Protein 1
Amino acid sequence: MADRCPTAFDERLISGYLDGELTQAAEQKVRLHLEDCAHCRALLEDLRAIREAAMSTEFSKPDDAQWDERPRGSISFVARGAGWILAAVWAVVVGMYALWEFWTAPASPAERLLVVGGLTALALLFISVLLDRIRTARTDPYREVEK
Amino acid sequence: MTQQRSSPGPVAASPPREATTVILAQQGEEAALDELARSCRQQAYVFALQLTGNPDDALDVAQDAMVRFFRSLGRFDASRPVRPWLLRIVRNLVRDRARRWRVRRTESLEPAEGVLRFEPRDPRPNPETLSTRRELQALVWKCVQDLSPRFREVLILRDYQDLTYAEIAQTLKIPRGTVMSRLHRARRLLREVVHRRPNPTGEVGNG
């Protein structure tokens, strides 16, 4: 039997049909196609058997005793948040100081070019990653929580 | 995508009981927090087990997932369903650790034993039917382990976790159309692997 539908039917619709995720019109289209296509009927039956086997599979679960206690209290979370804020402030202050020292210290144009070029590259990378994150976060329904 | 159902919308709503439990938990109600912990940790464990195939790794991931979960529960919008968020935490943790595990797994290519639990849902099952079903379940599960992670995760979310396409899209942060394409590709690959493996049941795989 050929591996693909001989009529070049969009086979992805078979999965959508199996899962009940198609529009009425698309469902009707698949139903009509299945009446004429033995290849897609066989595919659907195989996928259905596999899915039923998967859905009825049960997995072993650990006993309650194996679990750590539920995280309680927020002191450690507050401490961690404060720690990050302090570390960020420290990094900014030290960075500014280092920049100032570099700018006022005697250095050759080549040295200045190397450092400024490297810093500019890092800044561009940081901005591009930041913009990417902002763009994806806008469409993420779970943006407000940790993932 | 016009071929797919337009409803439910791209962001599924939380079931009312779940939303109430989340709100009470956010207010610090101990009973609600315990209920949420009990139900979420089992879901997190099973999904981690399905992704990793190893009970010890799964427990480790699920414990860490629960820490992340409770760390930002206070900021969670209770009108949204919890499961896609929880499963995304688990999936991200598994991805983060995959490289470390890959090195260790080169020693053993076979999935861990005792992962599947064979208990009949039907109170009086026909022994022959039960045996056939178990063999097919075990065969399919072994073949799922052979899929690459990107196909395995979408297939597990649909066929083992029973998530809708919209929920899978939220969990994996991919468009709904991509869910259908990737899922179909995963199913075709799985079917090929099942066909290649020796199968005593005769249901699928004699092609």
Protein 2
Amino acid sequence: MRRFTGRVTDVRRLTADIFSVWLKEPVLARAVQPGQFVNVLVGDGITFLLRRPISVADVSGDRLRLVFRVVGRGTAGLSQVRPGAQLDLLGPLGRPVRVGTSQDVLVCGGGVGAAPLLFLSRRLVRNNRLVVVLGARSKADLILVREFRALGVKGYLATDDGSLGWQGTAAELAEQVAREMNRPVVYACGPKALLADLVRRLPRHKLWGFVEERLGCGTGICHCCALPKQDGGYLRLCQEGPVVLLNKVRL
Amino acid sequence: MNFAVTIGKTVFPNPVLAAAGTFGFGLNFPRVANAIGGVVTKAITLEPRPGNPPPRIYEFPGGIINSVGLENPGLVRFQTELLPRLQRLKSRLIVNIAASSVAEFGRLAEELSSARVDGFEVNVSCPNIAEAGVVFGQSPALVEKVTRTVRHKTAKTVIVKLTANFVDPVETAQAAAAAGADAVTLINTVFGLALDKLGRPFLGGRTGGVSGPAIKPLALFCVDRVAAAVKIPIIGCGGIMNGQDALDFISAGASLVQVGTASLRNPEAPLVVWQELKGLCRKNGFTSWAAVLGRTRRSS
């Protein structure tokens, strides 16, 4: 983990409230692994004292891509950056996903949850049988579909309103897709309700979830990002996560 | 200029410390730890504490409110797992100890008095434990009792971390000094409450401790006030984000300062504060801390 200055090279609005920012930072781009995040400075220290943790959605050469949803004034400010701007970043943070080989793997993303799964899928696709399920409220809320398509793997789309793909939630669709596969390992990212639903629907699968919680430092020193464990106590999401086995935690 | 400051038996190479609870146990950033005056560990209690349910942190313009709840692995695991690793640090190490009874404070000091640590910061001011923690700090009589007990159990440096919540810190600082404390830290976080949009408490621990730039004026007020009333050194803490903030505390009467919340924003903050403070000393032509220490009072 180090402090970096990334130069913004591209800013794009993907949906009404989801933005994509490409940053040039060669050392960070090479160091970061799927599952990890960066902690981005968004203010002068008074208005926004804390950084904003954002998972890495993709890496290309010396650039990395952050895809995030605007949830408050901090992320709203971040969505206003322009190409050429410098962002102060801490990273890579969190534990990388250990990408296995020769497995059936299902990735399931809901809404902005598709973002970190793209980076992971790029690694998974090399040595595994990968299937992708993406869901969102409606067609306009689905993101990164083109990038996932370019991976050349089997993929399914779900929308709550049926405006594109299968009508229903990503979890419902993932359950059906998993049945057609050979007991796949599942990587899921999305709202806690989606993760909890997957735990109910796929109880016997190895189910990894990208979990969100309020972070303080992101570097392990403040103990604020507590996630309750099934067997009592808490884990520090920024140290033992953000990707955790969902049956070991209480969402 | 010689930047070293001596408190009790401990010589701190410079006056900037990392504050308890905002630098873990000092192991995450050894380069920072070794370059600053010293590290105060996250609080240790006799028994392990899981801490409060999430969310544990709330941000507002000017600061944060935390309700971590003294999550820590307890004395035994601290001794067996963390201390051996901490010995590898070159920095001065102060162990923050918290307890819910006078006897427990004594036990912690006794058990750790032979450890290779430089001293203790007696935490009588954490607002995040429902038990006696903060109550100690609100009562001069209890502060005196706790301090005396710890003093009897250890020859190491004893610092008492005081609160500004519902008590005049002059009274508690005098009590700590009378009981043999080598220094007092002023101030711990102040009580705070954050609500969600439905009017419910936002934090899992219901209430929390406010820190950051928002509490700097109060902390500075307390340091200035206590410095006029007690002879033992003061360690200033509360919203220090840069070298100028640190210099303000020293001017108001703090011999050392602690950087806390700023480390959540940038883990190198204590080092940055120290470098900036050093720069300010050069720029102002200070030749010793004596020229700066308490100059606020001398000027008014």
